[in-house]
Amino acid sequence: MAERAALEELVKLQGERVRGLKQQKASAELIEEEVGKLLKLKAQLGPDESKQKFVLKTPKGTRDYSPRQMAVREKVFDVIIRCFKRHGAEVIDTPVFELKETLMGKYGEDSKLIYDLKDQGGELLSLRYDLTVPFARYLAMNKLTNIKRYHIAKVYRRDNPAMTRGRYREFYQCDFDIAGNFDPMIPDAECLKIMCEILSSLQIGDFLVKVNDRRILDGMFAICGVSDSKFRTICSSVDKLDKVSWEEVKNEMAVLLQTPAQAGEEPLGVGSVAAGGRYDGLVGMFDPKGRKVPCVGLSIGVERIFSIVEQRLEALEEKVRTTETQVLVASAQKKLLEERLKLVSELWDAGIKAELLYKKNPKLLNQLQYCEEAGIPLVAIIGEQELKDGVIKLRSVTSREEQEDLKTAQNRDFNFYYGYFIDYYWQKWPDTTPFTYKALGA
Amino acid sequence: MPLLGLLPWRAWAALLSQLLRPPCASCTGAVRCQSQVAEAVLTSQLKAHQEKPNFIIKIPKGTRDLSPQHMVVREKILDLVISCFKRHGAKGMDTPAFELKEILTEKYGEDSGLMYDLKDQGGELLSLRYDLTVPFARYLAMNKVKKMKRYHVGKVWRRESPTIVQGRYREFCQCDFDIAGQFDPMIPDAECLKIMCEILSGLQLGDFLIKVNDRRIVDGMFAACGVPESKFRAICSSIDKLDKMAWKDVRHEMVAKKGLAPEVADRIGDYVQCHGGVSLVEQMFQDPRLSQNKQALEGLGDLKLLFEYLTLFGIAEKISFDLSLARGLDYYTGVIYEAVLLQTPTQAGEEPLNVGSVAAGGRYDGLVGMFDPKGHKVPCVGLSIGVERIFYIVEQRMKTKGEKVRTTETQVFVATPQKNFLQERLKLITELWDAGIKAEMLYKNNPKLLTQLHYCESTGIPLVVIIGEQELKEGVIKIRSVASREEVAIKRENLVAEIQNRLSES
């Protein structure tokens, strides 16, 4: 240790010497010689273990999903997927990267936002930019002429995340598409029906779906007498928004409305949460003969919905459970680990969601506190007396106020009758797995 | 302007036209321009391809699309795995597909040749994650988490040479469960093994066995046998091949290729051919060589405690203390385990599906400390389910048995025998959807009844509701069971209830 301190002192002195020489503008050879000595000393010192070697962070524009965010995400996906399934959609998945050539030329100016993989001697690859081009590639590759599919997955765009708060480089897309030649507007109408069902079920507020048709816009522009030359200028100036080279016919947009504070106010649009349209020319880009497969579909802006739902939960001060545990197996006295392990195993084998603390002799109060923090509704308590009597105490986890009373009553016998608690359990959680009871040692 | 970052591309295009709509003159540009740009792009694309001799659409080597048939099987398996994790109180989490390259290479120095790097496009140097464990360690260190029980299901990427035949891909799914934190010894470790057993039993893949060993026993055994410390890893990887190679071949490799003294190899041979239950642990406690080695004794002590807990969990007979288990990754610090499927007699006629282990894991107490700026340790133990291999096995079995799965969950089909009944079908199907019933209809104005019934049969839809002129007059709907072809007329207002009844009965 003393050696290291002495070495560090030497390094410091030598460093000062080098700096001094540089300031004095000493000869290059002299400086080099002294720098050499400095480096040698530093090498003797070895790697500086106290210095952080790298920064602990996720890449720019990406984020982890904490358990709380996962719980929200799961609920939202559940609603969405249930709706897609209700309408008879199949589900597919595609690789996270495609051959670079597959994505080339499909996104116009936005191609510069595509993440490329390094050339490591094999094929040139890029991370998928959306779920639509992979879908078109899938249709063409498998020579499919009609399919109704949904696809929920992350896509990647090297956007500048500093621009707008909440713009990520890795984010979820939730696509539903109907590909095929059908009688007009029936699939299109179903897409809108799906959008409405999803937005209603999510209960994030009032919404409106705006619909238009590109042919109407084109016709309108023509009538207004807009010259061709003007189109491109306007196009390039707002080019960031123009991603789509094959969005041909219709545009739809779902906009969330804020409920007005006072009657008579205009509802404010807070932003788009879903969009879609018909695009008949995409698959033809992949088919060697240019055969077209008409497609109509929608995309749910789930990241947006996640943050809306999270905000609502915060506003309501609702606690989100991050586990689904139904029962905590606890012990009232010491040396009951064996019994806890046996009981929790029985519960797991019966399909009941249960936990126990990883301590040989945990305090009962700590175990109850654990339940309260995690939102676990029931605790099964094993005690010496109960073991002798062949029973388990089943208790519903109470609020902190009531627990204060229990602290003083800790040494008293718990006189809760087992039968009462089974009834209570059934009433409160009728849709959970049945709780099987077996007396220990019976 | 509303937040744009989170919008899918369609929304951006739509928003564009929305914003430009008034005044009229300026709003035409973008959308009209789109079509011109689209044309230009399309032609250039086609031209490029016309120059190519062979226009074959491909996906990257070692990856695959998952068709609806694949997805149904996959979802069932993942459902089972995740519900087991949840049953044990694990929280879900997710991390990005790529990490800073320096974070991944921290642990995978030598293996980084198998990592997918992202191109240096002027920003941070990134690589696709290689597993879910290093991201977990990074998450714990980053958020200063001391205790966590988590599961993570996600894809990982490795540039290994794919063996599609054995179901080995470059992009594959992992299902990880880990318990991080300082706890009383072996309880979380035992729970990991309990979870592995529950999952493998639940998947009904036949009989299985979980091999258990301890890193300290492996190291202690090597030291006690006289393996030079510099050769530990090399010998370890040879021993690891014992599940595929015979002992004499492994011995040959160690002596001839790795320069191990033959008598040392023989001593190792005495141990690595041993496997058994808790009695073997007792036996090893008494072993003259091993009992002299402090490390080995620590490992044996932990295994003894582990077996006690596994007995209380009722799974001891599925666990085998196997001295040949020496798993590849060197971040394990304590107990290590690996689950393998056993060939059952009924599968004798089948081709042996040599997919190796289907689940594995162990204790790794030093990993988080490598990422923590102050080197604070967070002990971890966990497991990983080889879901792709399981997936492959299930698919193969289904192929052999000629099983077909439904790729949709549609319960009711809305049909009509007459023309000009589209409106009625649309009204009817809306009633069903609004009641939460899974329903479909053909996207045709005037489909033939036979076509509609064929559709039901081929997609496995169990019920059809039929509306026609007669039914409309009488105020009823016909419900038909696709399987039995029995038909019954139900009053329109009772339809939903009747359907829900039938569905709950089946």
UniProtKB/TrEMBL annotation, chain A:
Domain WHEP-TRS: 3-59
MF-aspect GO terms: ATP binding; histidine-tRNA ligase activity; identical protein binding; RNA binding
SUPFAM superfamilies per record: Class II aaRS ABD-related, Class II aaRS and biotin synthetases, S15/NS1 RNA-binding domain
Keywords attached to this entry: Aminoacyl-tRNA synthetase, ATP-binding, Coiled coil, Cytoplasm, Ligase, Nucleotide-binding, Phosphoprotein, Protein biosynthesis
Signal peptide (from-to): none
Subcellular location: Cytoplasm
EC number: 6.1.1.21
SMART domains given in the database record: WHEP-TRS (SM00991)
Pfam families membership: HGTP_anticodon, tRNA-synt_His, WHEP-TRS
One term under GO cellular component: cytosol
Sequence ranges assigned to domain Aminoacyl-transfer RNA synthetases class-II family profile in this UniProt record: 37-309
Gene3D superfamilies noted in UniProt: Anticodon-binding domain, Bira Bifunctional Protein, Domain 2, S15/NS1, RNA-binding
Binding site for L-histidine: 130-132, 157, 173, 177
Reaction catalysed by this enzyme: tRNA(His) + L-histidine + ATP = L-histidyl-tRNA(His) + AMP + diphosphate + H(+)
Function: Catalyzes the ATP-dependent ligation of histidine to the 3'-end of its cognate tRNA, via the formation of an aminoacyl-adenylate intermediate (His-AMP). Plays a role in axon guidance.
Name of the molecule in the record: Histidine--tRNA ligase, cytoplasmic
Lineage: Eukaryota, Metazoa, Chordata, Craniata, Vertebrata
UniProtKB/TrEMBL annotation, chain B:
The reaction(s) this protein catalyses: tRNA(His) + L-histidine + ATP = L-histidyl-tRNA(His) + AMP + diphosphate + H(+)
Residue sites binding L-histidine per the record: 131-133, 158, 174, 178, 327, 331-332
GO CC annotation terms, alphabetical: cytosol; mitochondrion
Signal peptide: 1-27
Keyword list, A-Z: Aminoacyl-tRNA synthetase, ATP-binding, Ligase, Nucleotide-binding, Protein biosynthesis, Signal
Aminoacyl-transfer RNA synthetases class-II family profile domain location: 62-417
NCBIfam families linked to this entry: hisS (TIGR00442)
Biological process according to GO: histidyl-tRNA aminoacylation
InterPro entries, A to Z: aa-tRNA-synth_II, aa-tRNA-synth_II/BPL/LPL, Anticodon-bd, Anticodon-bd_dom_sf, His-tRNA-ligase, HisRS-like_core, HisRS/HisZ, HisRS_anticodon
Protein name in UniProt: histidine--tRNA ligase
Gene3D superfamilies for this protein: Anticodon-binding domain, Bira Bifunctional Protein, Domain 2
SUPFAM superfamilies named among the record's database cross-references: Class II aaRS ABD-related, Class II aaRS and biotin synthetases
Pfam families tied to this protein: HGTP_anticodon, tRNA-synt_His
UniProt similarity note: Belongs to the class-II aminoacyl-tRNA synthetase family.
Species: Colobus angolensis palliatus (Peters' Angolan colobus)
Keyword Ligase among UniProt keywords: yes
Gene Ontology molecular function: ATP binding; histidine-tRNA ligase activity; identical protein binding; RNA binding
EC number of this enzyme: 6.1.1.21
